Predict the structure.
Amino acid sequence: METPLTNNISPGKEPPDLRQYENGGGYAAVRKALRMAPAEVMALVEESNLRGRGGAGFPTAQKWSFVPMGNDAPRPKYLICNADEMEPGTFKDRLLLEGNPHQLIEGMIVSAYTVQADVAYIFLRWAYKLAAERLESAIVEAYRQGYLGKNILGSEYSLELYLHVSAGRYICGEETALLNALEGKRANPRAKPPYPQVSGLWGKPTIVNNVETLCNVPHIVNRGAAWFKNLSRGANGGTKLYGVSGRVKNPGLWELPMGTSIREILEEHAGGMRDGYRFRGLLPGGASTDFVVADQLDVAMDFDSMQAAGSRLGTGTMIILDDKTCPVGMLLNLEHFFAQESCGWCTPCWSGLSWIEQILQRLEEGSGQSSDLERLQSHARLLGPGHTFCALAPGAAEPLQSGLKHFGDDFDRHIHEKRCPWR
Amino acid sequence: MTTIHIDSRPYTAQDGDNLLQQCLSLGFNLPYFCWHPALGSVGACRQCAIKQFKNEDDKRGKIVMACMTPVTDGARISIDDPEAREFRASVVEWLMVNHPHDCPVCDEGGECHLQDMTVMTGHTYRRYQGRKRTFHNQNLGPLVNHEMNRCIQCYRCTRFYRDYAGGRDLDAMVLRNQVYFGRHEDGILESEFSGNLVEVCPTGVFTDKTLKQHYTRKWDLQTAPSVCMHCGLGCNTIPGERYGTLRRIRNRFNGAVNGYFLCDRGRYGYEFANSKHRIRQPSLRKDRSAALQSAIKRDMLQHIAALLSNGTRVIGIGSPRASVESNFALRTLVGPEWFYAGVSDRDGRLLASILDILRQGPARSPSLHEVELADAVLVLGEDVTNTAPLLALALRQSVRRQPQKIAEKMHIPHWNDNAVRGAVQQERGPLFIATVAGTKLDDVATQTFHAAPDDLARLGFAVAHVLDSSAPPVLDMPDALQELADTIAEALKTAERPMVISGIGCGNRAVIEAAANVAWSLSNTGHPAELCFAVPECNSLGAAMIGGVSFESAFETACNGAPLNDNTAGATAETSTDVAADFSVDTVIILENDLYQRADAAIVDRFLAAAKHVVVIDHIDNATCARADVVLPAGTFAEADGTLVNNEGRAQRFFQVFVPQGDIQESWRWAQDIMTITGSGKGQPWINLDQVSAACAAAIPLLQPILHAAPPADFRIGGQKISRQPHRYSGRTAMLADISVHEPKPPEDPDAPLSFSMEGYLGHPPPALIPRFWAPGWNSVQAVNKFQDEVGSSLAGGDPGVRLIEPVPAGKAEYFSNVPIAFTRRTDEWLVVPLHHVFGTDELSVLAPAIAELAARPYLALNPADAAELGLAAGDESRLQLLRTNGRTGYSLPVQLKSELQRGVAGLPAGLPGLAGINLPAWGKVTRLGIGMKQGAPP
Amino acid sequence: MLSEQEKQQIEAKVQHYPNKRALCLEALKIVQEHRGWVTDEGIADVAEALQLTPAELEGMATFYNMIFRKPVGKHVILLCDSVSCWIMGYERLREHLTTRLGIGLGETSADQRFTLLPNVCLGACDHAPVMMIDNAHYQDLDPGKIDEIIAMYRQEDIAR
Ligand SMILES: Cc1cc2nc3c(=O)[nH]c(=O)nc-3n(C[C@H](O)[C@H](O)[C@H](O)COP(=O)(O)O)c2cc1C
Ligand code: SF4
Ligand code: FES
């Protein structure tokens, strides 16, 4: 089984430095891409069917194709690596950032070249201190070696790359809020359209891609689209970093073929439930995905299959709910997070989420009423996609509506017993 | 125009608009909060949700925000859709989660957009059981009250204050449901537009602090359409009265003039009308040593009749703060040859020159709305933020015109506000500002240039010469300045709507002429330009049109018996210069004018002492009244009707708001009464304002159109007058019950088609007569939507006012050729130039306590190098000695350093209390206080 | 006034961005790094250096949670309270820490040594429960482990 993303990564050890990275074939993709026309690279990525790993699964080449090209395109153009990773239960990008920073830098150079970006930023979550250190030194190395800066490797192409460390807040991961944060403004998302590809950072064409997405790019350039597609088990190409947290025997993170089934990940890689704990459900791709329950475990973890199953692949990092954990308490924890991280821009989110949190709090404490369930149901519906300014609130509604569906009995018990049965 | 389908019925809609604006324009009641017609859409509140369907077969549709969705041909939407309704009801419910139920004690109650929208969406029952979040409020100064618990996080306040008006001391803080809109600490809001927060905020977070002192609900206010008195722009206002006192001013939307906004001087200056300095009774004194004693009107008139009996010389001094009709009535009373303009010689000449330029040149004077549309602007000599505040607000919008093209290229609709700002970023302009000192608009200027007035004029002349080589050249231009002139010329030439702005603010005629040359050279070379002059007072131009040489000429005549100066010949049309040199004045009648504001006290003293009798008609007791033998109480703008001509040359009518107690009446009525009793005057006695206007229009052709500024007094709708009191006006039968239990008959109003009563027409009158904005379900200021055909543009039926001046075709006017020589420093002398302040320099508004609190203290501004040479540091006391022949010339002032001031130039905040009546620029000596005295300089 | 060092550190990032506004969070973080937290004076200093207003900076400082506008202790403990850590025993650890340090969430210990703050997911969910002290991550926590870590910080402080 090929694991191109993590091949060079040994957790707990220093990441490969520039020499080691080059010895392992590193920066070959940059050399190769610079000899290709940007459109050829774009075509390659398009053929590979690479889809964004940030959560929404948008086809990467298609996103890039909206960037104005040619001499009269507005300048500078920007490429941003979204390394904000703050979705609860998600810990995949951290591995790539800490474990192999050159891989990301290479991916960014190739991607930036494809859209002819002039400046690139890594928007890094503040908490990833180790990653920041390692990225800083990798960037210095890359500049020194001529992979960054003016006329990269003697080509016509130039790229400046900077590390920007955030000051906190989940909403900064939303790509348009990220732009505002980077500009030194409050991280309220922006209206779309216009899309960032047209009017992004400082009003200029901008691409925002997830760490994992960008890390795939050099491998596609090196080994071709067909190879990439073949890595996966289904139509969505490539490998995927899958993670599991919760009361499983062996929580962790693995690079597996895209489309590996939930069951395989859960049972073979995570080792199944810990002794004494039974599986009740899981959030497949971070806090803002719908609960998946026992009868759905054979679904393939890829974008299309998960969608068909009524959930989302999201970040591909699962959170397991066991039978000794209160689902109402878990939802309270989740909704508290979303309410707290709401940017405060649109009403359903800033007001609705805190109301939801209060209702859940009441239910969890045993003072809830059955009308509260209706309130929660309608909130989950009213916070749906399109109703709010960005996807934070709909993301918050996903575990809520599916939780109400799957754990209705548990809610009822809280109401009737006037206490949390797990406490 | 395209067709859209709303709830399955076709409507014609405006391409390029958003659906919310369209639905409102079509008369639908679609609720909203964050959207504002002047501020555009940001999609934050989610209140304007509707359903949109892909096509006829799409039955599911999806929820969209109407404010963020463009009108597209054939669009199918539903307002009535149950899901959309449910969502809108939820939004209000969410907004009300934290909102206190304090409507009964909230100043916004009864005119609250949140109340209206809550009712509109049908949210009545509270289901939220949790605690509400609470905030601390801030003291934001004397104008705006802060009550954050009522906030619904619509972001309108900061969008207006920061994005629209350029303020930077109010911001959004924290996040989630805790967003706090305020300053970083307690303190006075810095923007001179802060009062608009009161109207922009859809609930009671920001309310009018002055109203609080004499609070009255909107429905209990008697209101009438009015015009602001506090600068020359003529913003439209709605004053409200109860129990004989003025309670507040609200914006009166006029799409061509002030749009949705007012400045703080205009909004809060009204309290002068309630001032204890009001003149409420006629009074007279036996001789100059006695005190004024109140008198009965009849006796008073007889006394005046005696003063004016045959053979005596009577002169009248008009006023730029009195109506056209009152000025005209006085002019009729004394005869045109004895009528003097109530402005200083300097101002008179500058205003006359502006009037000539606008009448005889090819450049059109723009409305404020047109200023917003200008896409390249040169400001020459005028600190507009302080002399014509709303002009500055308009310029802040104009600098977005050219950058807007960036957004257009990206297909971002102009109303998608944050997206436009995101695309445009810091791009601004072109706006070039050339002034004596830095201005608040400099932050959005492409380039600024600060120099002595003559050098500003030279820059202007140079720009004109670049644009049209037949305009006179400027010799000895330094390279850098020529380069700037080239840049400005290029920017103006390549713009679609170039504009030049100037005014009398720096007291320099060459600056005005240079501005004219720039605009004319553009117009003459195929780039039709607009030319906008800021003038200081509400009827500066109207009074200039009526004419009369400056009152300083009267002084000279009275004081010296000497012939008039040549330079007074600059005054306009009806000017009479053949005043006999040998006359001495028996009686002078002064109309609504404190001469001490306009000339040195010593000169005015001598003049008033020389006149045998001084009659003052005014509403405010001032220094001039203190010297008067007879004082007649005039109505303020709120107690009188009249016509004012603003800087654009737009004649606008203001209407009486309430009937004052006692003998207070319109100044023109006093003039009429005097004419009646002396048997002077011409023709029939005037019994109403229309007759005065008609006589004025007949006598002065330029003023002919004022007859159409508003419908005449006999205008009726369905046989009814328009009511000044809302239909919910309460307590009418009880409010005077302590005096009499019989409800008095409402006063008659011979002058206007408005009634002092609830009885009357309550629907939509013609725009000039709208006494307040209200429509069923729309109690807040947003009701103005219902008075516009296209929401956000003009009032249905056209924006009020008539333009009096239109430009002549290009090529007719001759360029001005008096190019001044470059300013040179003098040793030991400074050119003292006026610096302007929005608060404190206007005679009337400074009587409003809140405005007085904001007035600057007098100071002398110096270039730091000059100050250092004089041994002066910031804050040191200096002595300024103006070099003039007569009058008071010495002032002790603390020093302020202004590095933009050219060396050899000093700035004086003329007009501030203590610094009134100084005509600048003038040369002066500056010394360090103490040192100068020791050396024996004059005290 | 910004110190020379603060100025230099801010200056070093200037060329990363096309305007000064973009530097504002970085500048606040630098000030925080040197002064422990962002004082009113710190806000004023940064405002002056970047030509922003205190209101604008306050709007930023109060939005982003890693800018401290109140004094914090020598060490800031960020205890992850997000879902995976919650499942794996966050509440027990919180109880433990609050009794051990004698402070509630959001508070600073009497000796000014520790400030305890709840924090969103720290990105180590497979090793939940997790916390961060200053720049270091601590994983797979239990009360015993926490005691050792706290003791270690106490000792280091005394040793210094
Ligand atoms: C509230 C919110 C938080 C997000 N956080 C992240 C994040 O931390 N990292 C990330 O890559 N994408 C995040 N996203 C998704 C981004 O908006 C964006 O879709 C993604 O960076 C695009 O990258 P991709 O096309 O490579 O997937 C978030 C979205 C939302 C709505
Ligand atoms: S959904 Fe929430 S986070 Fe997103 S814009 Fe609205 S308030 Fe902000
Ligand atoms: S008015 Fe449309 S979202 Fe606020």
Summary: Chain A has three domains: 18-231, 239-322, 327-417. The interface with chain B takes residues 169, 179, 186, 190-191, 193-194, 198-199, 202-203, 339-348, 350-355, 358, 362, 375, 378, 382, 386-389 of chain A (CB under 8 Å).
